[in-house]
Specification:
six-stranded mixed beta sheet; 2 helices; alpha+beta
Length: 108
């Protein structure tokens, strides 16, 4: 369940995280910019049981780097985006260093 706990969101990210997102700003560099993007998200999407769900997650990991990808369902299925995470082992713990969200452009 998405609780809107920004500190929980930031906990496993690196200080130099890079995020590419769907809404502006489409690129956030550093933990402060990453945090600002999430605050903007929570301002427009109240936390709750249908805030997020993940589907078709695949994880590939080496000794010190990994990536994961799949689908991120937002708002109980109202919006779906592709999710890619890059991770690095830092002091023995996995940390997200790169996060990428993208939405397909559907023919209208």
């Amino acid at each position: 369940m998405c609780k809107g706990d920004i500190q929980r969101v930031l906990k496993d990210r690196t200080d130099d995280i890079v995020m590419y997102d769907v809404p502006k700003p489409i690129q956030s560099i550093g933990i402060a910019a990453y945090e600002a993007s999430w605050k903007l998200f929570f301002d427009h999407n109240p936390p709750g049981p249908d805030c997020f769900s993940l589907r078709d997650i695949q994880i590939v990991a080496g000794e010190d780097v990994a990536y994961a990808f799949g689908l991120l369902i937002i708002g109980g299925g109202d919006a779906q985006c592709r999710l890619t995470l890059g991770l690095r082992r830092v002091d023995g713990a996995w940390k997200v260093t790169h996060e990428h969200h993208s939405m397909p452009i559907l023919p209208g």
